[in-house]
Every structure is written in structure tokens, then in C-alpha cells.
Amino acid sequence: MKSDIGAGKPRRRRMADDKEMKYRFRESRWRWATDSLLYRDSSTGNTVDKNMARAFPGLFKSGKSYTPPPKRRALRSTPIQFFLLNKCTERTPNSSDEMVLLQAGLGRRTLNIPENADHSQISYILMESYSKMVPLDGAWMLHKAAGGSGQRKLSVLVPEAEGYTGAYLAKALGGKGCLYIMPIQDTLDTSPLPYISQGSLAEAIETLSGRVDTTTLFNVSVTREDIFERGLGQWRRQKRSSPKNPIRVSFIGESGIDHGALRKEFLTEMMAGVERKFFQGGSTGKTPKYSITDYHKEHFKTAGEIMAVSIVQGGPPPNFFREWCYGYISTGEMDRDSISKEDVTDPELSQLMEEVEIAEPEAMYDLLDRITACGYSGPATWERKEEIIKAIILHSSVRILPMLQQICSGMKLYGLCEMIVQQPHNFRDLFVPGLHQKPDAEFLMGAISPVFSELGSLRRQRESRIINFLQDFIQNIEDEEEEKSCVVEERGTPVKITESDLDDGDSRETESTGEPARDEEEMKEQYKITVGCFLQWLTGQAHVPITSTERERFKILIEFDHDCSVRYGTHTVCFPVVNACSNSITFPTRHLGSYPEFLSIITQAVMSSREFSLP
Asked: Where is the HECT domain (predicted)?
């Protein structure tokens, strides 16, 4: 027993020694692996455990607490409206002066000013936007306008010791209003800028044109009667295609194939219909009508799509917006200080303002309900007339903001709205009246390209005489347009002619052989021809091409037919043949020997042949 017990003790020790050796072996292996991982790089002095602790602070605890580097604060910019004046003045410019300054490269612009910008940086940003500020050499100061409407008094914005800074301007402006840049000594030139800036507009429109989806066509088929209402319904249908695609138009009952002229005429009529139905105002600009019904049906969104397609696909620009409306489209904000009585286009609100202005103290009570309906909550007393009128002006603008927002939603087509925000100055003349050139006699005569016969021949003499007749005709209708108020509204589209006024078979390519069916003088009294109307009859469009590049390429080919008697035999009248898609017209020389004959035939042709047909 003892020998057995004594012999067992050494065995237990050996077993314990074996376990200790295994443990030590495992510990040495773990330390070797750890030492390998924690190998110290003598060149950098950084260890893997420190790197792991830095990357995973929750899993690896280092001796020193880890402090993450401070986040870099993003630089903020504040959009600020500036208005460059041409000289020292005590009051803000009126609407007509603003137009002159705008055409001269001065006027209102919205610029992004970094909050950490110093005076030199602000000067650089302003001179980069206003090239005519460079000769001032820093001799300018900023001014603020007093509250109210119309021409307001200007007061200087005193700079800090280090000059104007971004943070100072943002604080002084308070997120609203406009800063007026006034030269201290010099007077800036107000002559209109050349069309150099149109190059960027042409590039912008070319970029937008590249976003048109050409995989399919957006087909629109309408009758010529009630083009706008039928076209509006077809536009909203959008089953297999949409306005994202190239639009192709066909007039039901006509043989014309759309190679561009039908599309341009359709867009011209649609733009005139949008202006007529959804906008109200005068020649200085219009605002959207306040119509909850049209807003609910998203008609204003459709109007925005029509504007985008018209600009990108060769139609007329929507140059009928009030200045403040375009400012809202291009910035997303309403400049209250720039809105005046002239911006109130609603007849009822305009009448209310007039009644408030002339009302006696005892008559103010009778206007109380209408005044409170405009959101005015103060006392409606005779002494508060000015505050009441300001409330009416603000109410007229604020209530149509949803309509403007819906128009912007429609103009998101092709990314037009975003590009307007990026380039507000380039697109302004497409939206604000008075900036985009209207068709006149000078433009039309500059665009004609006659194909003359041999110099000195009898045919050449007849052709030159017809060109002179054409020039006299265009200049005469331009003079009449300026002297009288035309039946046609703004775009020169002829008033709709009923079936009883049209001869069977009349078309744009009229070749009849009989006496005129009606007296042209009587027609001229009933229907007025304008330069835009005549241009649309020739080419399908009643507007001057938008960009300078398109204007240079725009030509109207004039040809002459000397052999109609050979084809038709004995006859008394032939009418000009118009190919609107190729911008060409052929005059029958045999029937245009005198100006009265020319006037009679061209008047009846324009008035009676609006349809497209095949030759």
C-alpha cells in the first residue's frame, strides 16, 4: 500500500508538470503571435494595437483616450439680390428705368455670397457678374430701400471697418429685400449690350435640346377649329408618349406633313392660348390668374410643360411674365420690395385699391368685408389707407404663388427650371416682355432671300418690282399696326374665319383660276394682318428665333413663277404658293404687275388660306 501510495505521488507531479509545460508552451506561442502583431515600426513609431484602437475604439482600449478630429464645417452661402444703378440717385428706379438698366447689363441679379467672404472677395463676385463695374475701381457703396411700394427712398448701408463682409450683408439684409449698388462718382453706360450674352443662351438651349427623348414621337392631332382647347386635352392624354419626346403635329382634315412648320404653328397657337386663358395683365407683363379650378386640374403644370417644349423645340418664348414672377421662378422666393401697384393685375383688386384711395372716412366701413378678405386684420380706418393698400398688393401676389409653383413643376421638363435657376440672366428676356425682339419689317426684309433671274433681263425687272411691292406691303401693315389697335391679340394670329368666309379647296398652296371671291378691302376692315401674322403664314411661326445663331440661319426663300399660263391656259388669277416647312414662297409674276394687284392677291391669300395641303 505504502509502496503503491508512494509510487503514485511522483506520477501526479509528472502529470502536473506536463500540464504546466503545455500551458507554458501555449502561452509562449500566444505571446509570439501577439509580439508579431504588435511589431513596432521604428520608422513611424506607430503600433498595430494603436492603429486598431484608433479604428475600433469600442473593441480595443488604448492607454490614452481617443479624441476624434473636429469636423470641418461646410461653408455656407447666402443668396442676395443686388441691383446695379448707373448713377447716384435718391430713390429706386421705376419699371421703365429698370428695363433700360437690365438691357444695359445692369439691374437686378441674385448672387451667392459666402458667409466668410471679405470685401475683396465680394468685389470680385460683383465685378464678375457686372462687367461694367470694373471701371469703378471700387468706388461704389451699397444702399437699402425703405419699405413700401413704387419708387422708395434709398439709404446707405454703412460698411464695417474692414469693408463689406458676407456675414455682415446677410445680417443686414435679414433674408429679404435687395441691396442697391450705387457708383460714388462715375456714371455707368446704359447703352444696350450686344448679343454676346446670347451665346450662353444658345448653349443652354442646345443642352436642353439634347435631353429630348428621341426614341419615340409625341403625336398630337387636332382640328383647326378650337386648336387650344383640343390641343390642351390631347396634351394631357399622354398615353404612349409624352412631351419628353419630339412633338409631331397633324391638323385633322389637312394633308400637311409635319417637318417643322406644323409644330411651330401649333406651339404658337398653344402659347397664345396659355397667355389668354391662364394669365391676366397688360403689355408690360402678366401674372397667372387666381383659379383654384385650374390649379386643381393641374392646368398650370400643363402650361409650364408647353412653355418648356416651345422654348426647346422651336416655338415662341413665353415673354409675358411680370418681372417679380420671373424673379420667383428663378430664385424660388418672392421679393416683396419689388412688388408695386402696377403688379396687381386682378380687376377686382385693382378696383378695390382705387376705391380705398378715394374713399372718405365714413365710406371705409362699406369696404370692410372686401378689405378683410385680403388678409388685413388691422383697423380699417381712413388713416390706415397706405397699410390697407400694401395688404391688397401683397395679397394679390401671395395668393397666386401656388400657380407659379405649378408652372415651375411643369418647366422641370428637360431640366429647364433648374437651368433657369443657374442662369437667370440669360433666360430673363424669354420671359419678361420688352427684351425679346418682336417681328418687324426690318427683320422680315432682312430674312428674305430672293432667287433672281439673269441681271438685265425682263424677268429680272418683274421680280425686282415684286420684291418692292412686298417691302411696301410689310412696311404698310407695320405702320397700321402701330397706329391702330389690331383685332389680333399680341402674336398676330388672324381671327378665326368661319366656313362661310372660306372657299372650298382654299389652302396655303392656293392655285385657283377665277376672280377673287370677296372684296379684299372689306376683309382688311374686318380682319387685320400684322407682321407676325404674315410671318406665321409664311413659316408657321410668328416670333423671331430665340438665339442669335438661329436668327442668322433664318431665311425665307422667294422664287418666281413666269409660266403659269403654260400650265393653266387662259385664267385671270393665281395665288402665291407657300411651303412653310422650307420657308419658301413662289410668286406668280404674270398677275402681280401693279401694287393694287399685289395687295389684292396677297391679302386674300393670307386671310383665306391658313390650312396646310400637299401640292
From this structure: 244-270
